[in-house]
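Aim 2, interim progress: modelling of the cobalt (II) ion-bound target.
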Amino acid sequence: MKRGIAAFAAVLLVVFTCASASAGNHGNEDRDVKKGILLVAFGTSVPEARKAFDHIDRKVKTAFPATDVKWAYTSSIIRHKLAEQGKMIPSPEEALARMMDQGYTHVAVQSLHTIAGQEFHELSKNVKAFENMAGSIREIDMGYPLLSTQADIEAVSRAVIANIPKERSKDEAVVLMGHGTHHPANAFYAALMFNLQLKDPNIFVGTVEGWPEVGEIQEMLEGKGIEKAYLMPFMSVAGDHAKNDMAGGGDDSWKSVLTAEGITCVPILKGTGEYDNMVSIWVDHLKTSMAHLEEK
Ligand code: CO
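Predicted structure of the complex, ligand included:
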């Protein structure tokens, strides 16, 4: 009888071993994981401006050498312009559909926007739609834009100050040109200016399409008797707005408006995406997203 039980136990052991071996073959979680990163920018059609994106691409690939990095542009106007030149850049939705088809299981979508305005919220809505889709990428996480939390305002302020040309003296102004928006997130520009001025009272932040406008900035500079201003884009790329609206020769460019008031202007055509310390903030947000994916 004892021998009978031992034989039965041996059979059971064999059955369990086979069962767990076959479960291992079919459900090996690690082997099935395919991680990807999708970087999403507004886009640019200015060839020289693309060096900011190349820089971001290099920094992200250095931070995540084992993960595939893809790109998408939210601006359909820019995508269509580039398509006419034979450069095909997908929209975030096209890129996610492709990644879904290519079997990616975990994707971190990193917004390369400056603030969480309309484009960020539209992107977030569509990323959620992908999360809910049958047969989709198993886990998707979205990283915040550059200026999202109070900690970001502090980190961005420190980066702005570190990036000011060394020859500028404290009685000269630094005027940042943000994009600006009708979206409530526009308030971040004034919040950034407040934090910057606590550290250096002659740093100003204006916007092209939101508030404060160049008129308000001009009055502030005049009120302080500023004679010289360094103009710096506060956008990821030094593209069309930086070249024309900030530093252009037209009557309504910031350079022209301030020069007409007797302020000497020094435009610096360098986007935030060209500075290591700024890109590190986006990369930190991506690291948070990747850590969330790790937990899922
Ligand atoms: Co614009």
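The domain at 2-145+276-295 is CATH 3.40.50.1400 (Rossmann fold). The beta strands are 35-41, 68-73, 106-111, 139-143, 173-178, 203-207, 228-234, 264-267.
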